[in-house]
Write a structure and sequence with these properties.
Chain lengths: 202, 183
């Protein structure tokens, strides 16, 4: 405990914290009564304790009650993490995106490079006479065309640059449509503009 | 009409009475703000985190036992929030010590004693801000939350030996800083 007949810093701290047992405390007090150096060090340490204990509270510059009450939206006890709502929204969006993809794939196929477009045209020619039959045939044909394209795969693969260099499809329109769709998705999910965390009314 | 106790307000708030929670906020907003101010050293940041502490406390209020004193509990919620915030700031390499402080404007004429007291308080806050975050944390919990060493260790998830080491070194450093500011 003692270092060169003086009290160690940990011992002094523990003494002031009141965590020493009665015998240890008595030994410390006995030493302090005969050691001016240690008594001086303890007095300086007491000043720190006193300064901290007497530190006045700083006043608040604004009231927190109103913003806290505004921020409280759910009753206590209700699940507040938002995760189920997020999962439901994400699932709904995924299903909607899948449905759109399946429904409109033939039209996307129409807009793709000529090699696929020609395959799609062949399938269209094999379709029925009514609008529904035509649509069903188009849909089924488009998927068949897609499968054929995938099967052909790397053998007939044309680099995207080459493909789009000769492409006559509505590329700009597709880009605009895709961009607008992305912006709409971001805005609908609150990702486009982030709300401020605290309302500072000063 | 008798003023409701903290326990009564807490029970009402836990049952969904937001106005009761608002009353608790009103009673403890100053002390919670001061927890944050001592740890962060920046007034607006401290007010924001104090506000956030009450909001988070409300979200977890169904877990709070109204028999427990509300004040120490909410102050610990605030302290924990500040510790996490300080860790984030440390990772972002922000210099807390160098922040210029926009203090509350002092009245034009102050008695000498009040002026000296304000200067003294400012010196102590400045010294606290000069400490590294982990020293500031143990000082806050020991001196302002009166936590025993073992509870500080559990709260900060550090060994007991580290708590003592940080605390004793922090006090030693504070003593030197206060001596320096007094010169």
């Amino acid at each position: 405990m003692q270092n060169n007949d003086h009290l160690s810093s940990p011992l002094m701290n523990e003494y002031l914290d009141g965590v020493l047992d009665s015998q240890q405390a008595a030994e410390v007090e006995s030493h302090l009564s005969s050691c001016p150096a240690c008594a001086g060090r303890l007095a300086e340490l007491r000043l720190v304790f006193s300064a901290l204990e007497n530190l006045p509270e700083a006043p608040l510059s604004r009231d927190l009650v109103a913003p806290v009450l505004q921020a409280i939206e759910r009753p206590i006890g209700q699940h507040t993490s938002g995760l189920p709502a997020l999962r439901t929204a994400a699932l709904a969006q995924a299903l909607a995106a899948l449905a759109l993809f399946l429904l409109f794939w033939p039209f996307v196929l129409q807009s793709l490079p000529p090699s696929l477009f020609s395959l799609w045209l062949e399938q269209m020619a094999a379709g029925g006479t009514t609008a529904l039959q035509g649509w069903l045939a188009t849909w089924a044909g488009a998927w068949e065309a897609t499968w054929q394209f995938l099967e052909a795969g790397f053998e007939t693969w044309q680099s995207p640059v080459e493909s789009f260099a000769t492409w006559e499809g509505p590329f700009i329109e597709l880009v605009i449509l895709a961009g607008a769709g992305a912006l709409a998705w971001l805005a609908a999910n609150g990702l486009l503009l982030r709300p401020r965390r605290a309302d500072h009314s000063r | 009409m008798l003023t409701p106790t903290d326990q009564e307000l807490a029970r009402s708030a836990r049952d969904g009475d937001k106005a009761a929670f608002g009353d608790l906020v009103e009673r403890y907003q100053s002390s919670v703000f001061n927890v944050c101010y001592r740890l962060l050293g920046e007034r607006r940041e401290a007010e924001d985190l104090a506000q956030e502490a009450f909001i988070r406390a409300y979200q977890r209020f169904h877990l709070f036992d109204p028999q427990r004193p509300f004040g120490p509990w909410i102050r610990r919620v605030a302290a924990n929030l500040c510790f996490n915030h300080m860790q984030v700031l440390r990772h972002a390499s922000l210099e807390l010590e160098d922040e210029t402080e926009e203090g509350v404007e002092a009245p034009a004429q102050q008695p000498e004693s009040a002026r000296l007291a304000a200067e003294n308080a400012e010196a102590i806050r400045k010294a606290l801000q000069a400490l590294p975050p982990h020293y500031r944390a143990v000082i806050e919990l020991r001196h302002f939350h009166e936590m025993p060493y073992s509870e500080i260790a559990a709260f900060l998830k550090i060994p007991l030996s580290d708590v003592k080491s940080h605390l004793f070194r922090a006090r030693h450093r504070l003593a030197g800083l206060l001596r320096q500011y007094a010169e």
